[in-house]
Design brief:
Chain lengths: ~110, ~120
């Protein structure tokens, strides 16, 4: 099955700075890579996703890049705000099953 | 996005009792739903795939007789934790793809916090 690794496990940034979270995957057949934001005590919320036929996708302050050759993808959050503080999970798929990274706890310092 | 609900949001039970958790797709039909378990400060671990009208598929190490899954309709899957013990205390989350043509995307429910005393 798929093995997804995520770094860093914790990340603190000043408000207004950028945050970058990186993931690597093992299954070259994986073709869908979502990113989820999870606030304390809540279920994960999809914030952005990318399919393997695209190298980059952007949605306002959030962007994701994918390097299929190197099997890694990254989440970029620009102009961070305190409400961006949460745990972020990446995932890769094998068919319709997701395999999640270990999560990154992001703290945005006002 | 598609909406997935769970009920209850929080449950406390005595050791040895059974607990049922419901997962509903509110504005779409889901032939497949997924059940995850999440321990504090850890990632989501897939427990099983719930298939409408057929048996669930369990991940390795997950006891199918302890975690009973029933997907009786296209909008409802239930997870029953039988003879619950304190080590079953966890955050249980379901997810579902929003429909045909978007099978890769999953939307998650808000989760159910189970505490077994």
């Amino acid at each position: 099955g798929e093995n997804v690794e995520q770094h860093p496990s914790t990340l603190s940034v000043q408000e207004g700075d950028s945050a970058v979270i990186k993931c690597t995957y093992s299954d070259s057949a994986s073709n869908y890579f979502p990113w989820y934001k999870q606030e304390l005590g809540k279920g994960p919320q999809l914030i952005i996703d990318i399919r393997s036929n695209v190298g980059e996708k952007k949605d306002q302050r959030i962007a994701v890049t994918l390097n299929k050759t190197a099997k890694h993808f990254s989440l970029h959050i620009t102009e961070t705000q305190p409400e961006d503080s949460a745990v972020y999970f990446c995932a890769g798929n094998t068919g319709n099953q997701f395999y999640f990274g270990t999560g990154t706890s992001l703290t945005v310092i006002p | 996005g598609a909406v997935v609900s769970q009920h209850p949001s929080r449950v406390i039970c005595k050791s040895g009792t059974s607990v049922k958790i419901e997962c509903r797709s509110l504005d779409f039909q889901a032939t497949t739903m997924f059940w995850y378990r999440q321990f504090p400060k850890q990632s989501l671990m897939l427990m099983a795939t719930s298939n409408e009208g057929s048996k669930a598929t369990y991940e390795q190490g997950v006891e199918k007789d302890k975690f009973l899954i029933n997907h009786a309709s296209l909008t409802l899957s239930t997870l029953t934790v039988t003879s619950a013990h304190p080590e079953d205390s966890s955050f249980y989350i379901c997810s579902a793809p929003p429909g045909a043509g978007y099978q890769e995307t999953q939307y998650f429910g808000p989760g159910t916090r189970l505490l077994v005393l």
